[in-house]
Amino acid sequence: MLDLLERYPSPAALAETSEKTLANRLTKLAPRMGKRLAAEIVQALGEQTVVVPGTQAATVVMPRLAKQLAALLQQRDEVASEVERLVHAHPLYSVLTSMPGVGVRTAARLLTEVAHKTFASAAHLAAYAGLAPVTRRSGSSIRGEHPSRRGNKVLKRTLFLSAFAALRDPISRAYYSRKIQQGKRHNQALIALARRRCDVMFAMLRDGTFYQPQTAPNA
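Structure (tokenized):
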């Protein structure tokens, strides 16, 4: 789309171009959608009856903005590639990605948040991530345990989303299902799964060992 805006910055410029030319250009960028998009653009141009004020000015500004945005997107892709290269080179990368639900991006976030820190136990790691349950009290009464609102929010979200992705794994799905059967709601069950996975991840990082299904807690 940015390529289209840069080359044809106004409806008038598009109108001067044949559907075939548009289709050929768009097909190079989006092989499966090129012809359909070209037909939709031509149809929309044919139905246009109002000229929007400022269109002429937009024809000057739009190509520049499109070019700048394309450059930023390219820079983003280059940075992402470099980050991926650095993550792959980390000695704990293969350890983390051996765990279900942990891909390149998740491993990168985990390495950023915990690899340079030392935790005395899995419970300390869970508390740092805000996954350790806290007991709410009101006067002399106890209202039960609830997820903590403290902790590293980036790490907590990463572990939560990783637990969600791990539901494709039979062991993780079985643990999640047990929590649902115990009366927990979806998010509560995922938090519980993330907490259990935190125990496993702590041992993996501490010992530098790969994920072993039999080590996954089944409580």
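Strands lie at 133-138, 141-147. DSSP finds eleven helices and two strands in the chain.
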